[in-house]
Amino acid sequence: MPSLRSAAIGACAVALSLGASWSAKADPALPNLENLNFLQYTGSAPKNSFEAVNPVGWTGGHNLIFIVAPGTDPTSAVTACGPTYLSTYGCPSTLAIKGGYNEVEADGNPDYEEGFNYLVTGLTPGVTYTLSFYQAASQQRGFVGDTTEQWIVSLGKDGLTTCIGCGAYNSTFGSFESTYSNADPNASVVATPLMSTPSGGMTDWNYVSVSLTADDTSDLLSFLAWGDEGTTNNLPPMVFLTGVNSPSGLNNVPEPATLSVLAAGLLGFGGTMWRRRRRA
């Protein structure tokens, strides 16, 4: 039967190995992104349409896409759930992101929104990058029915576009599904995990990561809100985004530094038990 010291040293080795493996396999973060929390703008103060606020560095965002400011007062006109147009049943909770943040609030009905983009430079073609951010969901007040929501994200020479009603008929939502695409055939296009929001409810912030492979030294990072599987029955689903490339404050997955601390603690524990055993 192995001694406590051997067991502790073995656990330490496993923890260190996990940390080294995590570090070796982790893709680099998407570089040279600024104004990731939409705090810098040249137009109207939030809450207002994406184009009217005009967040620095971002392009596109026509139709029913808004920049909103978070807050705990649901009656505030600048919050998603406030009285300003596109008022939602719920406001996502306030996140403790360094430097503060604003949020993108987008109608997930393809009839009423389009992608918005950021030109990313300093890329290495063929390299896969990690992009992390927060997503949440709710519904516009005055409508009823369960909804689903997610973000479509792409990295390529072009931004995301939609084809309204080009997909199959969806009996659940009662309309034809739309489709999305990127005109760049080599673009990376991924979908975030699906959120399912009950009628009159809200799905609070969850932290997501996607992998995107560059096909040029400069590519467009593009986001598209996608609700009810692309149908246009207009419940409507509202999709939120903030904290692009921000660290997670919600998940409990140990990072390499955490694993190293764990390993050091296990080693110390093993040494203590070994000394106690010798004295005994």
Strand content: 25-35%
- What is the count of β-strands? 16
Biggest sheet, open or closed, and with what strands and sense? 6 strands, antiparallel
Run of helices and strands = HEHEEEEEEEEEEEEEEEH
Query: Which range best describes the helical content: under 10%, 10-25%, 25-40%, 40-55%, 55-70% or over 70%?
Result: 10-25%
User: Over all CA atoms, what is the radius of gyration?
Assistant: 23 Å
CATH class of the largest domain: Mainly Beta
Distance between the termini: 18 Å
Biggest sheet, spatial arrangement of strands: 1-3-4-16-6-14
Instruction: Note the overall shape.
Output: globular
Helix tally equals: 3
Indicate the structural class. Answer: alpha+beta
Structural domain count: 2
| Overall average residue pLDDT | 84
The name of the CATH topology of the largest domain is Jelly Rolls
- Quaternary status: single chain
Describe, in plain words, how this protein is organized in 3D.
The protein has two domains: 4-23 and 256-279; 30-242, Jelly Rolls (Sandwich), CATH 2.60.120. Helix content is 18%, strand content 31%. The protein has helices at residues 4-25, 50-53, 256-279, and strands spanning 48-49, 58-60, 65-68, 103-107, 116-120, 128-139, 147-156, 160-163, 169-170, 175-176, 179-182, 188-191, 195-197, 203-213, 219-227, 237-242. Residues 11-24 and 250-270 have low confidence and may be disordered. The strands form four sheets. A six-stranded antiparallel sheet has the order 1-3-4-16-6-14. The two termini are 18 Å apart. The chain is of the alpha+beta class and 280 residues long.
